[in-house]
Each structure stands twice: as C-alpha cells, then as structure tokens.
C-alpha cells in the first residue's frame, strides 16, 4: 500500500485532496502537513497530521524516512497575487521546496511525485483563445515564472533520473469547503459568500474578464486520475493543460441572480486586473483528454447551484 505525504495540506487544494486521498487509500496512509500547529478543521481527527515547513529539507527527509513515504503531493506555494507582494520570498518558497522534494524523491526512490502548475505560466504573448498544450510561454508574474521553471525541472528529473513526476496546469479553482489562497481568480469564490451574506459584491476584475475556471470537485478527481493513470499514458512531463469552463464576472453574477434575484455586483479593478489580462481566456486540454481520459463534470450553472446549496447548508 502506498504511503502518501501532502505538503501544504491546509491550502485550498490541499484540504480537499487530503480528504479524497484518505477516502481512496485509507486515513492512516495519508499524512497531511502544513505550517500551522493544527490541521484545517475538515482534516482534524481524520488522519495523521504534522506541522512541517516545506523549506526544511532535513525535516522533510526525516518524515519521508520514518513513515515509509512512497508518494509526495507537493502543494505548498505562494500564489499569484500574494507572490507579487514579495517576489523573492515567493520564488524561494515555490522553487527551493520543489527542488528539495525532487532530490529527496530520487534519493529515497519514491514511486511518484505530484506538483501542480497553473495557467499563470502563460503570458500576454500566449494565444488567449483555446491556449494550446505547447505554445509561447512568457509569464509576467513571479508565480508564473516559478511554475514554468518548476515544469522544466520536473521534466529534467524525469529525463535524467526517471522520476515519475506528474503535473496539471490548474485554471482558477472554486470550492465551498476551503478558502482561496491569494490568487487572481479568488473573486469566483468570494462572490458566492458575499451574495449569500450581503447580496452584494465588489469585484476586483472588470465585468468582461474571461478566465478558465474549474470546480474543485473536478480538479481533485482529475488530479487523482492523473496520478493513477498508467505510466505509458503520461506523454508530457512538464504539465498538462486542464480546463472545464470559462466565464466572466458578469456571467457568474447572472447565474447567482437566478438563485438570488436581489444580488448586485459592481466593479473596482485593482492590480490583479493586469495579471488576469496576461492569462488565457480559454484552454485547449485535448492532450489530457486523449492521453489519460480527462473529462469535466461541472459547468457554470451546475457549479453555481452546487456552491449555493452547500454554502446555505453550512
């Protein structure tokens, strides 16, 4: 049985991925770690948790050895908007921790590594409609720069040492279970909370800003499906484009108004608008669909219904 270690299990992806992996592999076989003393409330008393700094390579190696770890899901990172506030710290966290994980994986002969990339690798010179798997990549944020560099390092470790590293270029991710972590697409989570609480939301992007998005249920399922796919099906060792839908703030607001007619939205674009303007409007993910069978289940209307239903219950 595989023994899985998650770095950054307290983040938006980490919480739900830990829950899904524990359901698939058993609670005791998935060790969640983060910088905080206590796990996220959804993970509390649901399996092993350790306080661990992803930048502490010696502590990480010790955890891997003591627990017989066979797979690492490395999710610890500073995201796009947060990273722009302290670029050198973002580079340090995002890159040094990845290289340590890759080195430990080779040294300890781990079976698989998962490391997420992002649509942030793309930039203003990238084709914005149906962005191809292989295309011009000139990121303008430190987050995007670190993700693109990380993709190249993952490919390098696979080619030189045969390390089985797998990766997805996530679009904006939307979830009712865990809070976003400082990204440019965070508005698409915040808007639901504010619609229910205040019937009003001020968006930090323009009303017609289209970005690729995905419901977290699809993202988690896709991540696990990628990791469980036969090795021969994995044709790229950088990162797979993956997508489900694209919409604008105006369009998501209209779906919310269907459920909450009195909801109103206004717009006050800030520094995140410039980041969004350099990203794709839609993604071509035919490689993922063809190589290992990726299929999304949630579109905008279905996601809005599910988000509002769960948030009302909570």
Task: Describe what you observe in this structure.
The chain is of the alpha/beta class. The protein has 2 domains: 4-171 and 214-241, 3-Layer(aba) Sandwich (Rossmann fold); 172-213 and 244-283 and 297-313, UDP-galactose 4-epimerase, domain 1 (Alpha-Beta Complex). The protein has 11 helices and 14 strands. The chain has a 6-stranded parallel β-sheet with strand order 3-2-1-4-5-7, sandwiched between helices. Strands 6-8-12 form a 3-stranded parallel β-sheet. A 3-stranded mixed β-sheet has the order 9-11-13. Strand 1, helix 1 (12-25) and strand 2 (30-34) form a beta-alpha-beta unit. The chain is globular and about 55 Å long.
Q: Which labels suit this protein?
A:
314 residues; alpha/beta; Rossmann fold; UDP-galactose 4-epimerase, domain 1; 2 domains; 6-stranded parallel sheet; 3-stranded parallel sheet; 11 helices
CATH architecture of the largest domain: 3-Layer(aba) Sandwich
What percentage of residues falls in helices of 4 or more residues? 40-55%
The overall average pLDDT, rounded, is 96
Q: Structural class from helices and strands?
A: alpha/beta
Counting H and I runs of at least 4 residues, what is the number of helices? Answer: 11
CATH homologous superfamily grouping of the largest domain: NAD(P)-binding Rossmann-like Domain
Over the alpha carbons, how many angstroms does the gyration radius reach?
19 Å
The name of the CATH topology of the largest domain is Rossmann fold
Strand proportion: 5-15%
Question: Number of domains in the coordinates?
Answer: 2
Side-by-side strand order of the widest sheet: 3-2-1-4-5-7
Uncertain ranges = none
Order of helices and strands: EHEEHEHHEEHEEEHEEHEEHEHHH
CATH class of the largest domain: Alpha Beta
Can you count the beta strands?
Answer: 14
Major β-sheet, in short? Answer: 6 strands, parallel
What is the overall shape?
Answer: globular
């Amino acid at each position: 049985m595989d023994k899985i270690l998650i770095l950054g299990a307290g983040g938006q992806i980490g919480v739900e991925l830990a829950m899904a992996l524990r359901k698939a592999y058993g609670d005791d076989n998935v060790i969640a770690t983060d910088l905080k003393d206590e796990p996220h409330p959804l993970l509390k008393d649901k399996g092993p948790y350790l306080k661990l700094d992803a930048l502490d390579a010696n502590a990480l190696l010790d955890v891997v050895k003591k627990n017989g770890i066979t797979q690492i899901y490395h999710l610890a990172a500073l995201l796009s908007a947060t990273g722009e506030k302290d670029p050198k710290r973002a580079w340090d966290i995002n890159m040094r921790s990845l290289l340590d994980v890759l080195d430990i994986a080779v040294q300890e002969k781990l079976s698989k590594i998962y490391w997420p990339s992002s649509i942030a690798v793309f930039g203003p010179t990238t084709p914005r409609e149906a962005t191809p798997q292989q295309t011009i990549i000139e990121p303008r944020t430190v987050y995007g720069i670190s993700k693109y560099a990380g993709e190249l390092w993952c490919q390098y470790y696979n080619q030189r040492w045969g390390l089985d590293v797998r990766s997805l270029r996530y679009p904006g991710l939307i979830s009712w279970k865990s809070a976003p972590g400082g990204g440019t697409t965070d508005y698409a989570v915040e808007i639901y909370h504010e619609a229910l609480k205040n019937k009003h939301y001020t968006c930090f992007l323009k009303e017609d800003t289209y970005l690729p998005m995905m419901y977290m249920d699809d993202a988690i399922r896709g991540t696990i499906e990628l990791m469980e796919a036969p090795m021969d099906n994995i044709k790229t060792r950088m990162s797979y484009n993956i997508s489900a839908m694209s919409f604008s703030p105006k369009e998501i607001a209209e779906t919310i108004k269907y459920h909450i007619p009195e909801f109103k939205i206004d717009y006050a674009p800030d520094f995140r608008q410039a980041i969004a303007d350099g990203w794709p409007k839609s993604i071509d993910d035919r490689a993922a669909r063809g190589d290992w069978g990726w299929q999304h289940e949630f579109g905008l209307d279905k996601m809005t219904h599910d988000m509002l239903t769960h948030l009302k219950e909570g």
